[in-house]
From TrEMBL:
This is Serine protease. Pfam families: Trypsin. Residues 1-23 form the signal peptide. GO terms for biological process: proteolysis. Residues 35-257 form the Peptidase S1 domain.
Amino acid sequence: MGVTSRFARLLLAAVVAATGAVAAGVAQAGAEERIVGGSLANIEDYGYTVYLSTQDGFQYCGGTLVSQDKVVTAAHCSAGKAASEILVVGGREDKDSVEGTVSPVRGIWVHPGFTDIRSGADISVLTLATPMPYDTAPLATPDDTPLYRPGVVGVILGWGRTAADGAVSPQLRRASVPLVADTSCQQAYPSFLPASMVCAGLPQGGIDTCQGDSGGPLTVSGVLVGVTSWGEGCAEPNRPGVYTRVAAYADELAAQI
Ligand code: ARG
């Protein structure tokens, strides 16, 4: 994708934000109080969205297909695990269905700097044994600073909890959240590290990723800018979601992909 078309799509995202798409999202979250994540999504529209499951079929994290056999996820979803413990499921919207592709994992790369979610480097690349025929998402690079501007609207996707104390979703869900300025995120979380993390959410809360969404995508204009990592509670006011800043790891990711 050329820089020009990325910029055009970014403008579109900004215009959508200005015309009230975020306000509409808030109204919806208010009307259905327990929803953290907006609405049902079609896997055809977000083919790059995959999930990680145990061999028993328990979905515990999300991921993003970035090439036919590489998935970007969070380090805390894969660190300390053997490849044989993880299955990657692509092309499946409903976890109770058998649609799509289930692939064993052939290799796990965990960022060597990863220790725990609050210290950054929460990023990992899985190599699939079975390539997947779905859309892939391009990775953000240091040239993509416009995609990280505060107020730019990102899309979050996953099968995680629909309330902080609720159950995970059987169906893929999506929501739109504006990116938050590093200075405000620093105020929300003293442990926020702007060089390796980026925040997204509304000051009043109501829309957020939650447990089970980790490892999944935060995209802006279809570009992977963040990986769901952590947050205090889910969708709480002044507690935005924290995402691994993908552009900060562009070189290391490129070497794996
Ligand atoms: N750590 C969580 C997971 O493993 C993701 C939490 C995201 N939390 C948030 N408030 N955005 O699924």
